């Protein structure tokens, strides 16, 4: 049935895979839009074929970024209520769920920003890592409250996503100091908070985020600098409730080294993991649109939101 996958779905998958589309909320929104397009433009004439096309589209999208749990959570949300005895009813249910999901994403970001802003005081300096729309939302909300916030932004190699954070904060007139990743320990005593995002949150409160987050958290704990993770419940990984481990994506070595330099150095192995896992003991708080939680409180909230685990729509037999 993959031949029936809409071209827009494949284009979205390619953009996510190459990181042209990045950031959990952006990825999730794009996925929802792609499924809505698949539904709206399907020429299926019977319900089973329509369902099979949606599952095939979901698989194409799912396989792009194994660590970014916002992606499968978006698929689950849009397809979980795909019910009906006619193509028209099924189509309406998918488009309606996708639209509702996008509205929830927008409101969740605003609510999470307010929760994070309440942790920040006037005059605080925040250290960030990589780029997180949730982190930016927290700082934006604090600025809108009239607080003066300074930011120390790690550049976050190899793709320099910290530059995106720096650009967005400067657009808010937040003073920004950009530092190389390896300088973080030197400046941790000069900041009031470390605020990072997450790609996934496991049931035990472990945080899966851009490579370098764990080292930053360990150093922050050593310095006595509090570290909070801004992550909407979209980032919760329900499969971890049943013991599933989170896959860590390995990126192309060409993000780290070009062919000419590789040839000059000689025969070497290049490893480029996109993420690492920060144990919950190094995290002070997880900030969500539902409030602030200690890492050990995540499992209870996750069960409330997702139950104990279900069969995902793209895994259902044809």
UniProtKB/TrEMBL annotation:
Annotated GO MF terms? ribose 1,5-bisphosphate isomerase activity
Q: Biological process GO terms, please? A: pentose catabolic process
Q: Record-annotated residues binding substrate?
A: 22-25, 65, 209-210, 235
Further information in the entry reads:
Reaction proceeds via a cis-phosphoenolate intermediate.
Instruction: Report what the protein is called.
Output: Ribose 1,5-bisphosphate isomerase
- InterPro entries membership: IF-2B-related, IF_2B-like_C, Initiation_fac_2B_a/b/d, M1Pi_N, NagB/RpiA_transferase-like, R15Pi
Explain the purpose of this protein: Catalyzes the isomerization of ribose 1,5-bisphosphate (R15P) to ribulose 1,5-bisphosphate (RuBP).
Q: Which organism is it from?
A: Salinirubrum litoreum
Write out the catalysed reaction: alpha-D-ribose 1,5-bisphosphate = D-ribulose 1,5-bisphosphate
Q: What keywords were assigned to this record?
A: Carbohydrate metabolism, Isomerase
């Amino acid at each position: 049935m993959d031949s029936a996958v809409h071209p827009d779905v494949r284009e979205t998958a390619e953009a996510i895979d190459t990181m042209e589309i990045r950031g959990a909320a952006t990825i999730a929104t794009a996925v929802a839009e792609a499924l809505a397009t698949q539904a709206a433009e399907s020429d299926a004439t019977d319900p089973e074929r329509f369902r099979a096309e949606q599952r095939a589209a979901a698989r194409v999208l799912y396989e792009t970024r194994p660590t970014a749990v916002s992606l499968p959570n978006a698929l689950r949300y849009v397809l979980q209520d795909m019910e009906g005895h006619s193509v028209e009813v099924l189509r309406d249910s998918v488009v309606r769920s996708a639209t509702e999901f996008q509205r929830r994403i927008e409101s969740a970001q605003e609510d999470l920003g307010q929760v994070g802003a309440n942790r920040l005081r006037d005059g605080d300096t925040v250290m960030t890592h990589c780029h997180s729309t949730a982190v930016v939302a927290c700082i934006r909300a604090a600025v809108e409250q009239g607080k003066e916030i300074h930011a120390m932004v790690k550049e976050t190699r190899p793709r320099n996503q910290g530059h995106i954070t720096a650009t967005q904060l400067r657009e808010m007139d937040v003073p920004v100091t950009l530092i190389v990743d390896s300088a973080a320990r030197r400046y941790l005593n000069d900041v009031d908070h470390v605020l990072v995002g997450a790609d996934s949150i496991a049931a035990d409160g472990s945080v899966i985020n851009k490579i370098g987050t764990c080292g930053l958290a360990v150093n922050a704990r050593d310095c006595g600098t509090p570290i909070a993770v801004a992550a909407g419940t979209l980032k919760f990984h329900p499969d971890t409730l049943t013991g599933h481990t989170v896959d860590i994506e390995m990126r192309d070595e060409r993000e780290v080294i070009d062919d000419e330099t590789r040839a000059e150095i000689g025969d070497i192995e290049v490893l480029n993991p996109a993420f690492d896992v920060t144990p919950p003991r190094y995290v002070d708080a997880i900030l969500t649109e539902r409030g602030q939680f200690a890492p050990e409180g995540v499992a209870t909230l996750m069960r409330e939101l997702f139950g104990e685990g279900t069969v995902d729509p793209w895994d259902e037999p044809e």
